[in-house]
Design brief:
34% of the residues lie in helices and 14% in strands. With 368 residues, it is α/β, with parallel strands linked by helices.
């Protein structure tokens, strides 16, 4: 009896349609490569004392039992995952590699799986390896195009490209190589429209956002995944923090001035360019909290086994009293990062303040 069959029996045996894996993303630093990305890295090397404290807050005050640990540096991923596991949280080990060719993507994922395997050996069943995310868009070779923008344009022009079989062929080669080094459960974080053979995986994973275009059929869109008979995890969902983001048709994406953001990240000259939004927007924490709470309520009882919310914190997107510079509005985080080295009032030892969405998620997780 393989791990796939065991997990399926255990999940079904719980006899509950409520979400079992309740969690948030925790970004350890994601490196974006190639054209189409405004920034190269998202987070400095983590202070492990801060990491531990944040993970304790996620466990004790947010009432989560799982963390999707995301990042491009395997050493950081491993250190954060080890801390999460020590604290009793479930670790969804999620290496994030962008714009590497398939052979190098595979090599990097296998190396990450080897690191995850050491944690899984010490914490059996509590480390889940996420074998890539949305590779159709973020790995060259599935679709033509030198960047995510080019691939999206090609897909929009010819949706039939999704049926080219290249993603399934890639995963069919990748999974045996991961299984050779990692004995724990596997999933893949898919786009809702990607064509994935879920047979080799233990969990079905789908990044699934609820907004104007999907609100009326949000749960309906999950039915093909539920029909596999395997436990389904909504591996990514969330909402930005400005008025109208929920009805923008693009999840509120694209309101940061990316040129200034790129300049802000440059050595030497970066201090002369403050990150800012590309227009005038109104902060709306109540909307973010309401939309996330509504999504969580819809997922309860839908049949999904897990919901992993994006995201806990976005340290690079600081809030500001001047709306033009309040780039936290373009963040999906549950906490707002404070500028100038300031600390919060709710958590005086932390460089952030909880948003209204933090309380909404905590109420939901505590109740369910």
């Amino acid at each position: 009896m393989g791990p796939d069959h065991v997990i399926h029996i255990l999940w079904r045996g719980r006899g509950s349609r409520h979400v079992q894996h309740k969690g948030v993303h925790y970004d350890t630093g994601t490196m974006f490569r190639g054209p189409g990305y405004a920034i190269s890295t998202r987070r400095k090397p983590p202070d492990m004392a801060v990491v531990r404290r944040e993970l304790e807050i996620i466990r004790d005050d947010l009432y989560a039992n799982a963390v999707r640990i995301v990042g491009s540096d395997v050493g950081r991923l491993t250190a954060v995952a080890e801390t999460a596991l020590e604290l009793g949280l479930e670790g969804w080990f999620s290496p994030a590699f962008f714009e590497y060719p398939p052979e190098e993507t595979t090599a990097r994922l296998v190396a990450a799986a080897e690191a995850a395997a050491r944690l899984e050996a010490a914490h059996p069943g509590r480390v889940i390896f996420v074998a890539g995310s949305e590779l159709t868009l973020f790995m060259p070779g599935i679709l033509a195009g030198k960047s995510v923008t080019g691939r999206l344009q090609g897909l929009k022009a010819d949706p039939a490209l999704l049926h080219n079989g290249k993603l399934a062929a890639y995963l069919a080669v990748l999974v045996p190589r991961l299984r050779a080094v990692f004995a724990g459960p596997l999933t893949y974080a898919s786009l809702a429209f990607e064509q994935v053979d879920w047979g080799p995986f233990d969990y079905v994973g789908v990044d699934h956002y609820r907004e104007a275009r999907t609100k009326d059929r949000y749960i309906e869109m999950l039915q093909p995944f539920l029909a596999t008979g395997k436990p389904v995890i909504v591996t990514e969902f969330g909402m930005r923090t400005f008025h109208g983001a929920e009805s923008s048709g693009a999840l509120g994406f694209g309101v940061t001035d990316t040129t200034r953001l790129w300049l802000h990240t440059r050595p030497v000259i970066g201090r002369f360019f403050r990150s800012r939004l590309n227009g005038t927007f109104q902060r709306d924490e109540a909307m973010q909290a309401r939309e996330i709470a509504d999504t969580l309520e819809e997922l309860e009882g839908s049949g999904v086994a897990g919901a992993l919310l994006s995201t806990f914190a976005t340290p690079g997107a600081k809030t500001d009293d001047n709306p033009r510079y309040d780039v936290d509005m373009d963040s999906m985080s549950l906490v707002k990062s404070l500028p100038g080295g300031r600390h919060g009032t709710v958590y005086p030892d932390m460089p952030w303040e909880p948003k209204e969405s933090f309380a909404a998620v905590a109420r939901h997780f505590a109740r369910h």
